[in-house]
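Dear Dr. H.,

I hope your travels went smoothly. While you were away I took the liberty of generating a structure for the chain from your last submission, since the lab meeting agenda had it listed for discussion. I wanted you to have the full record in hand beforehand rather than looking at slides cold. The sequence, exactly as received, is reproduced here:
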Amino acid sequence: MSQLSLGDILGLIVFIACWLLYPSIVRRFVPNAINMGLTRMRVAWMRTMLKRENRIVDSALIGHVVHSASFFTSTSLIVIGALLSLMSNIDRVQPAVEQLAFVVPIPRSVFEFKIALPLIVLLHGFTALTWSLRQLNYTIAMIGAVPDRKSVGASSERLAQAIGRSLSAALSTFNTGIRAYYFAIGGLAWVVGGWALALAGIAIAVMLLWRQRYSAAAEHFRAALEAMEDAHSEIPTQGVL
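The corresponding predicted structure, in token form, is as follows:
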């Protein structure tokens, strides 16, 4: 660590800030982001589920979510194993990387530290994905315990809020795990230099923020959310369903 240049340290600070502060930035400064409306959408989904006689569709959708989380969790293990293998062969990897025209030769200890950054990011993502799976299991238990629509009664809105927010908490953690892939790839830029790492972190954060607020998907989501809430406001959410 003492062999890192000032540029490397500043680049690392900027990168970590972009990586770890991204969710807070979205919450505070991008109120119309997709992620900010998803909790409301999922609560609306649970309200609809409580009114259904047959909930096979909801079970299929939850199964798809669990499958996606399981897939990315397994993939994270494979990628982490590949990075560990890369670090164990550092004697062959470093000369090959330093042959690139834009890479400046650095001491082996510094190179190892820089290669470890994407590994750390992915390990953080892996823990988020496994926690997401656990939370999804809790949500599945809630959904499985929901009584039939005639027996829900006055507790319908409380159930919809609780289950919808539980599902959102699980999928918010899942999003943290997915973002780790983006930032792990960006972390590889550190072998070029601290400036490249900082630019990679900023570029990834800006790209994700653009998708959340200004992409076509974000526009369509906001339109659907508004229409969904208008439709639900016309239907009683409490009482016998």
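Two observations you may find useful: Residues 236-241 have pLDDT under 50 and may be disordered. The two ends are 62 Å apart (CA to CA).

With kind regards,
E. W.
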